[in-house]
From TrEMBL:
Residues 1-12 have a biased composition (Basic and acidic residues). GO terms for cellular component: nucleus. GO terms for molecular function: protein dimerization activity; zinc ion binding. It comes from the Eukaryota. The keyword Transmembrane helix does not apply. This is Putative AC transposase. Residues 1-67 are annotated as: Disordered. The keyword Signal does not apply. SUPFAM superfamilies: Hermes dimerisation domain (SSF140996), Ribonuclease H-like (SSF53098). It is found in: Nucleus.
Length: 565
């Protein structure tokens, strides 16, 4: 018989019958009651172990002879009508034998819980003691939820979302999720919670939070762009005391609609190099270019033609570089003979490409297109390169458009190019050209002069006479030394006007100087700003800091969105 010393006596434990303990108030295996056979016990165990009335009276006193009471009875109480009940659960039995009571005590779920809770804990992750088979059995049958708070999938997701907000709103790097002290701290708060990896936080969780905070706003529509611009204007004025007076954008349909929606709130205009790029793209024969691109791709993307072409690598056009279309045509003309030889000798060249190469009409059209596009390319190249400089202003753009129109009169006679010319020379840009101390409205057509004068008059009627006197170099207002070439070359337009105001403050008002500051500082394009973003793209890369521009953009958006909530 096993020793009873290992059984924990819990006479002092008061059982609350309303407290759920995992037991239904019956033996864990009720079939054992009906199938119980006293004959299965040994002779010693068949003796009736129920204590007599005398034994009950002496149970708390000194033993005075006779058979000792089995200690198993200490874990039970007499209920009445010969029923005995377990002190730890609601199980009861009529006229039980000691062996029956012992069997229930071993199977009692409440007793197992109390035994485990009463056991001393020496380590957070210690192994179970191998000396007690019964203890190991009890532990394996217990529920892990009885010892700490579990975390299901839904709770894991909720905690991850809150953690992601904390990281993004505080500009904490994702690598904190790998910090051993941070992991130790989180584990001490909730051991069952598993921290996400930095990769999961910077991809899946970041994208989910971004979509949650900007539902529907991610789409680039004119309405959304207008709203974002107004938010930026307000923040610039409130935080930095900067007043935004103009807006330059690219020339897609969305941006053009946004500029129309803004109306007269801002001086809005399109990026001039981009407009020139559209002019060149329209002038190029699109259908011819597409056929030649098929040939170029075939000989560029297959290794079997590389040895035959040697250093004559086919050129493909770029959407953002119009001149690359001419380079594509020139590359085809140069390589067409080699293309024909390879196509005739190698069956791996597909039939469609062979047909294009063998078509002499396509070759002649490519030659004629180069002759037509060459002067356009030269003129546009000069204008694009010049207007993409940080120092190029909107009055420079007006001057370049005028030169292009003179050099390419047939091209700008068509309605499409007239429209692009008008977009590149809005009335306020013409006014800037008229008040510039070097240009002074030179080479402007009568129609353009009228548009510029009307715009200046709408600002202040007194501004127009001063503008006209500038064109005439009126010495009663402007000192002759101000028009010397060395002065015009080395002095900025704004400083030139400030000097002229000092010479004649009564005729050049502060309001006119304010208008000059606005018009003469408008850039010709957004190229300078785009270069800043390009530099950021080269700095914030996956290779350098595992973040990337797209993730940085989302984190910045989330950071601002959470601050505004």
């Amino acid at each position: 018989m096993k020793s009873e010393d290992s059984i924990i006596h819990l006479e002092d434990v008061i059982q609350n019958p309303d407290d759920p303990d995992g037991s239904d108030g019956q033996p864990s295996n009720p079939s054992n009651i009906s199938d119980y056979d006293p004959g299965e016990l040994g002779e010693d165990d068949n003796d009736h172990d129920e204590p007599s009335s005398k034994q009950k009276k002496l149970s708390s006193g000194t033993h005075k002879g006779g058979r000792m009471k089995d200690q198993i009875w200490d874990s039970y109480m007499e209920i009445g009508d010969d029923f005995w009940g377990c002190k730890m659960c609601q199980w009861k039995n009529k006229n039980p034998k000691a062996d029956r009571l012992r069997k229930h005590l071993n199977d009692c779920s409440k007793k197992r819980k109390l035994t485990i809770l009463a056991a001393p804990v020496t380590a957070t992750n210690s192994m179970l003691p191998t000396s007690s088979t019964k203890a190991s059995l009890n532990y394996s049958q217990s529920s892990i939820k009885d010892h700490f708070i579990s975390t299901n999938d839904r709770q894991q997701l909720e905690i991850n979302q809150k953690l992601q907000k904390a990281i993004c709103s505080s500009n904490i790097p994702f690598r904190v999720l790998e910090n051993e002290h941070f992991i130790e701290w989180v584990t001490s708060l909730r051991p069952s919670y598993k921290l996400p990896t930095p990769k999961t936080a910077s991809t899946y969780l970041l994208d989910n939070l971004y979509r949650e905070l900007c539902p529907g706003e991610e789409e680039k529509t004119a309405e959304n762009c207008t709203k974002w611009l107004q938010v930026c204007r307000k923040e610039a004025e409130e935080k930095f005391s900067i007043k935004i007076v103009a807006c330059v954008t690219d020339n897609c349909n969305t941006m053009e609609k946004m500029r129309r929606d803004l109306g007269k709130e801002l001086l809005c205009y399109g990026d001039n190099p981009h407009l020139l790029n559209l002019v060149g793209k329209k002038a190029s024969p699109e259908k011819l270019i597409q056929k030649i691109i098929k040939v170029q791709k075939c000989f560029r993307n297959h290794d079997f033609v590389t040895p035959a072409l040697k250093n004559s690598r086919p050129v493909l056009p770029s959407e953002t570089r119009w001149n690359s279309q001419i380079d594509c045509l020139k590359s085809y003309i140069t390589n067409q003979g080699k293309y024909l030889e390879i196509a005739c000798s190698d069956d791996r060249v597909n039939d469609e490409v062979k047909t294009i190469i063998e078509n002499g009409s396509i070759f002649r059209q490519a030659n004629d297109s180069i002759k037509f596009l060459e002067p356009i390319a030269i003129a546009l190249n000069r204008g694009i390169k010049f207007l993409q400089k940080d120092s190029s202003m909107i009055f420079d753009a007006v001057h370049e458009w005028i030169k292009l129109k003179k050099e390419l009169p047939q091209l700008f006679a068509e309605s499409y190019y007239k429209d692009k010319f008008a977009k590149g020379t809005p009335a306020f840009a013409i006014a800037a050209c008229m008040i510039h101390p070097i240009y002074r409205g030179a080479d402007l057509s009568n129609e353009m002069k009228k548009d510029g004068r009307d715009w200046i008059s709408t600002q202040d009627k007194n501004f127009l006479p001063l503008t006209l006197n500038l064109a005439c170099k009126d010495e009663s207002i402007f000192s002759p030394c101000l028009f010397e070439e060395s002065v015009l070359a080395d002095v900025s337009p704004i400083n030139w006007w400030l000097t002229a105001q000092q010479d004649n403050p009564t005729k050049i008002s502060d309001e006119f100087i304010k208008m000059c500051r606005i018009l003469l500082e408008l850039p010709a394009s957004s190229a300078g700003l785009e270069r800043i973003f390009s530099a950021m793209t080269n700095t914030i890369t996956d290779k350098r800091n595992r973040l990337g521009v797209e993730k940085a953009r989302k984190i910045t958006f989330i950071n601002q969105a959470l601050k505004n909530t």
